[in-house]
Amino acid sequence: MEPLHHFQVHKFVDFSLLGIDLSVSNSVLWMWIAAGLAFLFFTYGLRNTKQVPGRMQSLVELGYLFILDMVDDIIGKKDGRKFFPYIFSLFYFILFCNLSGLIPGSFTVTSQIIVTGTFAAIIVGFALLFGFYNHGIHYFKFFVPTGVPVLLMPLMVPIEIISFLARPVSLSVRLFANMTAGHTMLAVMFFYVVTLPIFGAWLPFGFTVVFTGVEIFIGFIQAYIFTILTCVYINDAIHLH
Question: How many angstroms separate the CA atoms of 163 and 176, rounded?
Fold first, then answer.
C-alpha cells in the first residue's frame, strides 16, 4: 500500500464539454461530501429548536455566534453583516473539508494547492475589486502607509504592493502546507500500523491516536486563520489602513 495514496486525484466520472474537463474526481466528490456534512450538521442541530436549547442546538448556535462575533469585531456590524453569509459558509466549508480528510479512505481537499489557491485568489481578488468599487482611484492610498516620510515613499510603496500580492500565496500555502504535512504524518503512521507485526504496531498506533487529536485541532485553527484573514482583507477594502 502506498502511504501517500491519500493525496492522489482519481477520476470517477470522465466527462468533458466543449474541450473543458468537467470530470468528477475524488477531490470534487469530497467537496460535495464536506458541503453535505456541514449542511446536515446545521440542519440536524436546528431540526427541533427550543427556548432552552439542548446540546446539539447549543453547539450550532455557538458556531453561528462564533462567526458573527468575528465579523462584527473585525469588519464592524454596519459593514460586516452583508458579508456574513459568505464568511460563515467559507469557514464551515473549509472546516469540514479539513476534518473529513481524517476519515479513513477519504480525500483531503484542502491538501491540494489548486483548491486553496483558488479560494485565496477569489478572496483577495474580491477584496481588491471591492476596494476600488468603494473608493475609486483613492483606493491606491492603501499602498501608501500613513505617517511615512516622503523620502521613504519610493521604498515603502513597492513593499506594500509586494505585501499585497503575497496575500493569496501566503493564504493558500499556509492551509495547504498544514493539511498536507499533518495528513502525511497520519498516513505514514497508518501505513506502519497495518504493515508491522502486531507487537511492533502499538507504538505507531499510539502516535496515530495523538496525531489525530492534533489534526482535529489544526483543522479548526487553519479554518479560523483563513476566515479571520478574509475578514481582515475585506475590512481593508472598506476602511483602508
Answer: 20
